[in-house]
């Protein structure tokens, strides 16, 4: 059973192209976890020492931007196979997290220690390339969304939020987005139409595709 669990861990795309030696180290160093729902994984300002790889369940990553009139703003949700940029960046750089992570449902997964992650970055070109690709696509949008949430236009805030999700196609309703970023549904719909007209996105029924 243990071998099967860790083979599922190696199914993460960031481990594609690892050598047998690198795969063996990942299997040896990974720690399996089971955490109930409604548990804080880290608070904003913490420093992470492990990278989370989610096998099942859902985690939300959020900030509390009271200056825009909402108590909580969800940056993104993590499901099986997705990677948390806040957790990854904090672990690699030993810097404070920019947001808080909390389990929505019970979760199962693995924690890979910081030393192992840094070893992979130094020894595995494929792992390093994958992680740098994540940073390039999502980190700038994430920082902009967090630091400029009070001052940016709704249009720019929406675009930053969409980029932060890390997916080309996002299944979500306008009502859900409105509740996340603290504006009305009408405001979301109007600004999404603007973004579509500008060529950034394509709207479908319950779906937003980045172009």
From TrEMBL:
UniProt superkingdom: Bacteria
Alphabetical list of CDD domains matching this protein: CAP_ED, HTH_CRP
Every HTH crp-type domain range: 152-211
Coiled-coil positions: none
GO function terms (MF aspect): DNA binding; DNA-binding transcription factor activity
Transcription regulation as UniProt keyword: yes
PROSITE patterns: CNMP_BINDING_3, HTH_CRP_1, HTH_CRP_2
Keywords assigned by UniProt, alphabetized: DNA-binding, Transcription, Transcription regulation
GO cellular component, one term: cytosol
Gene3D superfamilies per the UniProt record, alphabetical: Jelly Rolls, Winged helix-like DNA-binding domain superfamily/Winged helix DNA-binding domain
Domain Cyclic nucleotide-binding: 14-138
Any Pfam family hit: HTH_Crp_2
Protein known as: Crp/Fnr family transcriptional regulator
Organism: Arcobacter arenosus
